[in-house]
Specification:
22% strand, 30% helix, 4 helices, 216 residues, alpha/beta, single chain
């Protein structure tokens, strides 16, 4: 059964229960502005430049052909596979060394390549997830990048609201073949800055609040 994962504090969702996902209780920890939340043209250009730079460095390094690079608003997602832990760390180091990098999510696996059929299966899963996002009335599919590796779906982007962010993860979890959903989707705060999404935790229980407060 697919499950949703929280990573780097970008989204917190509970595992699926009877095919449904329960979102963390509370409003978003940041205030999303009502203006457009997609990447600006400048951000998209920067991401293209950043991705190309990292890929070129990895190619020049050697032994990194199995690494996939996806970028969104300065967040670098590394997936794929290398044959040693040292190469995994090296790929991350190369990513951090780029001027436009704001954060790195290193999900590179260690070991031999999964092969053509596994890669083809991941591509099919990504297509199913994108189809669900396109068909959702709660999600602007253009806001969300989808990457799948080993049945794990990684979501990146900038959502218009906490509700859209959670809806995207939920829709992805329902696609056939998905093993797990890891969301790196973020929001803009009221200053227009792109920030991680952190649902507010429920307040601690206070017995003094019962029945109008402490007894006299």
């Amino acid at each position: 059964m697919p499950r949703l994962n929280h990573t780097l504090g970008l989204i917190a969702l509970f595992p699926l229960i009877s095919g449904c996902v329960a979102a963390a209780v509370g409003a978003a920890g940041v205030t999303a502005v009502t203006a457009t939340q997609e990447r600006t043209f400048g951000e998209a250009v920067d991401d293209t430049s950043l991705s190309s730079s990292i890929k070129a460095r990895l190619l020049a390094e050697g032994g990194m052909l199995g690494v996939s690079v996806d970028t969104n608003a300065g967040l670098v997602l590394l997936t794929g596979r290398v044959d040693t832990p040292e190469k995994k760390l090296r790929a991350e180091s190369i990513s951090w060394a780029q001027r436009l990098t704001r954060d790195v999510a290193n999900n590179i696996a260690i070991g031999e390549s999964a092969g053509f059929f596994a890669n083809a299966s991941d591509s099919v899963i990504s297509g199913r997830v994108r189809a669900r996002l396109l068909g959702s009335s709660s999600v602007q599919a253009r806001n969300i990048n989808v990457e799948t590796y080993g049945g794990v779906v990684y979501l990146m982007g900038v959502a218009r609201s906490a509700e859209e962010l959670e809806a995207a993860a939920y829709e992805a979890s329902l696609a056939q073949g998905v093993v797990q959903v890891v969301s790196y989707v973020r929001l803009r705060d009221n200053r227009g800055e792109i920030v991680p999404y952190t649902p507010n935790a429920p307040r601690a229980f206070d017995s003094n609040e019962l029945l109008g407060g402490p007894a006299g």
